[in-house]
Amino acid sequence: MIYLDNAATSFPKPEAVYRAVERCMRTFAANPGRSGHKLALQAGREIYLTREAAAELFHVSDPFRMIFTANATESLNLALKGILQPGDHVITSSMEHNSVLRPLSALKEHGIMVTIVPCTRQGSLEPDAVQAAIQPNTRLIAVTHASNVTGTIMPVKEIMEMARDRQILLLLDASQTAGILDIDLAECPVDLLAAPGHKGLLGPQGTGLLYIREGLHLKTMKEGGTGSRSEELTQPELIPDRYESGTLNTPGIVGLGAGIQYVKSHRAQIQERETQLTRFFLEELKKVKGVILYGADDVNAPRTGVVSMNIGDLDSCEAACRLDQEFDICTRPGLHCAPLAHRTIGTLDRGTVRFSIGFETTEAEMIETLDAIRQIASHS
Amino acid sequence: MIYLDNAATSFPKPEAVYRAVERCMRTFAANPGRSGHKLALQAGREIYLTREAAAELFHVSDPFRMIFTANATESLNLALKGILQPGDHVITSSMEHNSVLRPLSALKEHGIMVTIVPCTRQGSLEPDAVQAAIQPNTRLIAVTHASNVTGTIMPVKEIMEMARDRQILLLLDASQTAGILDIDLAECPVDLLAAPGHKGLLGPQGTGLLYIREGLHLKTMKEGGTGSRSEELTQPELIPDRYESGTLNTPGIVGLGAGIQYVKSHRAQIQERETQLTRFFLEELKKVKGVILYGADDVNAPRTGVVSMNIGDLDSCEAACRLDQEFDICTRPGLHCAPLAHRTIGTLDRGTVRFSIGFETTEAEMIETLDAIRQIASHS
After folding, report:
1. Min CA distance, B282 vs chain A (Å)?
2. Residue of chain B with shortest Cα separation from A35
3. Structural domain boundaries, residue A319
4. Minimal CA separation from B283 to chain A, in Å
5. Is there a single domain that holds both residue B302 and residue B254?
6. Helices (DSSP H) in chain A: which residue ranges?
7. Domain's final residue, options B261, B285, B320
8. Residues B294-349: pLDDT tens digits?
9. Of the candidates A97, A250, A331, which has its C-beta nearest B205's C-beta?
10. CB–CB of B220 and A106 under 8 A?
11. Is the overall model pTM greater than 0.95, yes or no?
12. Which stretches in chain B have pLDDT values below 50?
C-alpha cells in the first residue's frame, strides 16, 4: 500500500511514537497535575517535556505559552473566539480551511465582521490585497501558512510585518506546515499559532497545539477542573491551566513529544526529500496528457508536499477510488474541507485528487503512483 | 505500588485496551470520515464500533446520539453552553465538580441564572430541595450521578421524573459512574449524559462522551472540518458531525471501544468486587482511631468505590504524601476540583485523602492500605 494522505494525518508514525504511547499507557498514565503521587507527577513531567520540545521547535522561550488541545480545529476555535469581540473586524483568505471559515461564520452572528480576501487562481495570497482589506476596527488577520489544497505557501512574513505596524494581531494556521517548514517565532513573531499534533509533528491523533504570545489574554472556550486553585469557582488565570480544563490526553501528548523529537533530529533530511519528491512528481505529472494540475505553475515555486490534480473529465472521487481499488494508493478526493479554495482554483464542481507526501514516502512509491496515474489517464 | 486514584483516571487499563490502541496506530490510523481510501474507511468503521458499543452500554438505540469529546469536561461544557440561553435558569448541586461549576460561572456573565442547591453534610442531594429551587424559567437541572469526593450516589431517577413532569431538561454528569453503575437510558431517559472515556469505561485519556437525546439541538462550541458537506461555510446539522469538528482521536476511541467491551463482559463481577472492597475498607477504617470518614455514615448505603477521609489533624496532602513515599500507595489529597463539596462536608480547609478503587484492586491491596493508615494514625 502507498499512503499519500499525509496532509490529512501522517501515517505511519515513527516507531518511537508508538513506543512512547505504549510506555506511557502501561507505566505511568495517571492524571497529570491532579494528585501528588509518583505516577501523577511523572505524567505531569512527561507532558512538560512535550511542551518544552514544542516550544523549542518553534523557538518559543516560555513552554507554558504552548497550550495542548485535541486538534488544530480546537486551537483555531479557541484563538478566534478567545480574541474576537463584538464590533471587531477580522481578515482571512479564500484559501482557508473550514476550521477557520466555519468558526468565523459562527462569530458573524455575534457581531464580528469578516472579510475574506480572494487569492489568485494559483492559490496565492497577495499582501496588497490583505492591506486593502484593513479597516479601523480590524483586530485580527487569520491566515493559513500553506494551503491544504494546493500546497501554496503564503507570504506570512510580509503579512506579519504589516499587521504589526498596524497593531493588528496575526493568527497563523500551521496545520500544513508545523514540523514541515521551519517556523521560528523569535524571528517571525506571530501572536497566535495553531497546529495539529498528528500531521507534520508526527504525533498521534487527538493532539493539537495553540501558541499564545505573552501578554495575550483569551476568553476561555471550556472551563473546568484544572488541578489548580481548586477552591475557586471561576477559571484560574494561570497558564497553561486556564486553557486546558479536564484530563489531558497524556498518552497522545507523550507520543507527540516523541514525534517532535523525531522531527527535530531529521528535519533537514525530511524537508530535502519531500521537496525533491514533490518536484519530481510535479515534473512528471506535467508530461502526462489529460492531467490538470493546480497551484503554482512553476514546479520550483515554494510549496509543501501537497499536490492537487484531476485527470481529464474524471470526477476526483472516481479517480481516487480507482487509485485505491486498482493500485492500492491512498489519496484524498473531493473538497478537502476548504470550499472557497476550490472556488478560487476553479474546482468547486468536482474537487481534486490530492497527493500528500510524508516523511517515509519513497521515490519508488512516487514512480509507482505516476504509473498508476498514466494508466488511468490513458483510459479516461 | 498500590494505585487507588481510579476516580481521577483508571490505571492500569485492561490489556485489550493497550493492544487496541497499538493495533490502530500501527495499522489503520488514517483520518476517519475524510478520505475514501481503505485505511480512512477502516478508521471510520472502528470509530463507529466504539460509538455502537457505548450506545449499547447505555441502552441508547441510535449510536449517532453518542458524541465523542476529549474528556467529560468538554462534554459538560458542550452540554451546558449548547442548551442554555440568556434568561434561562439552571439548577445544580453543591456536590458538583468544577467542570460543572466553572462553566456555570462563565455562563452567569451571559445572563444565565444559576441556583446551587446545598446537599446534606453527608453529601446527598434531597429531591425536595431541587424541587423547591425550580422557577418558571428553569431550563435545565445539571447534577452529578455520584460525588467524586464522597462516592455518594444521587437520587437521579426521582430528579429525572420531577424534571420530566415540568419539561425541564436533565444533564447527568456520569464522570464517576459510567462503566461502574448500571445506566439504562431507556429506563431512565435523561436528556444529556456526560462521561469520561478514561475512568470507569477503562479507555485511554483523551476520550469522553456526550449523549444527546433525540430531538435536542445544541449550539456548537467548536466548528470546523467535519468531512461532510464540505461545500458549506457553516457547521452542518448532521449528527454526530455537527459536534465533532476536526480530526478525532482515533487510537483513543478505538482503545475506548476495547475498554467498553471489557466493562460489558465483566460488569457484574467488577461491581460486586468494588462494592465488597469498599464496604470492607469502610468497616475497617471505622475501627481506626483518629480516622475521620466523610459521606454516608452507613457503610451499606449506596456509593461508588470512592472513600474520602482524614487522619487526626494531619493535612490531607501530608497524609497522602506519606502514603506515597513510605508505603507506595497512590491516592489523591486536597480539594478534588469540587470546592463546594468540601464546604458541604466541612473539609474546605484541608481537603480529604481520597481512595478510589478500580477494576483490578485486590483485597490484599486494601489490607496493606489499611495497615499503612493504621501506622500513620498511630503516630499522628
Report:
1. 22
2. B332
3. 2-9+267-378
4. 25
5. no
6. 15-27, 38-57, 72-83, 98-108, 127-133, 156-165, 250-286, 316-327, 339-345, 363-378
7. B261
8. 999 898 899 999 999 999 999 999 999 999 999 999 999 999 999 999 999 999 99
9. A250
10. yes
11. yes
12. none
